[in-house]
Amino acid sequence: MSQAALPGATVASLQRQSLLDPVDNRILLCHALGLSRMGLITQSERTLTEDEAARLSALIARRLAGEPVAYLIGRREFYGLDFAVDANVLIPRPETELLVELALERLPPRGRVLDMGTGSGAIAVALAHTRPDAAVTALDVSAGALAVAGRNAASNGATVRLLQSDWFGALQDDIFDLIVSNPPYIASGDRHLSEGDLRFEPAGALTDHADGLSALRRIVGGAPAHLVPGGWLLMEHGYDQSDAVQALLTAGGWQDVQSWHDLAGIARVTGGRAALR
Questions:
Q1: Is 25 assigned a ligand-binding role in the annotation?
Q2: Fewest beta carbons less than 10 Å away: which of 45, 180, 193, 274?
Q3: Does the annotation list 119 as a binding residue?
Q4: Where does substrate bind (predicted)?
């Protein structure tokens, strides 16, 4: 079975004969040919031109080399919204929707929320889109990531204040009702960094180049100065880090410290409330 798409091949034959996962193959076919999923059915006997065959062959080769489908087509769905993605940002993942749900449950009317390390803006835009009454601020140290987040806010009709900042550095005296973050939490040298999609995603958004907890420590330590008394801090983390993150919060005097599990049963988000003062 050849990995190349040949001029004259039909859409139907390309769906039957592929080295790719069927879902990946369908997505790349739609992207390369400008077809919807229904179009793959209604135009099953359509034949490829030379340009279409070359375009599809290049996409297939890149996917077989491991490049994520989201980067190949430049899009990813998250929380029912369409997000642009490129190599400046992590690809939004379904498990992060738990963080959005938890935040929405705790965001008061006309509440102020901060998303730290926003990347593509997935969390911030999902919150602002769902709760247009909220004042949403999103920060990231990467100018490239903020450019992507800005495009995603605009395309989804969401109002998000974007701020280039190394964690709390540029916030000054800003106060929020809620802080959320999906920070880099993979430890330096972790084998997962050299496997699958992670090989292609920005390292600085994946790993803290330390023990996996340094960014989480900075957030836990700095958040009280930017939260109202009793305001929530919610952080996504690795599959085996909930105990360590709970310990950081408890040691810092946070209240109601707890973890929440994603649909796979993994403790994915941990948080607590700022002390009442």
A1: no
A2: 45
A3: yes
A4: 182-185
pTM: 0.89
Task: Report whether 179 contacts 223 (CB < 8 A).
Answer: yes
Q: Tell me if 71 is assigned to a ligand binding site.
A: no
Distance between CA 20 and CA 34 in Å, rounded?
A: 19
How many alpha carbons fall within 13 Å on the CB side of residue 52? 18
165: β partners? none
Residue 118 labeled ligand binder: yes
260 is in an annotated binding site: no
Rounded CA gap, 108 and 90, in Å? 28
The residue with tokens 């602002």 is 128
Residue 184, annotated as binding a ligand: yes
What is the token pair recorded at 64?
């077989």
Express each pLDDT in 147-196 by its tens digit.
999 999 999 999 999 999 999 999 989 999 999 999 999 888 888 888 88
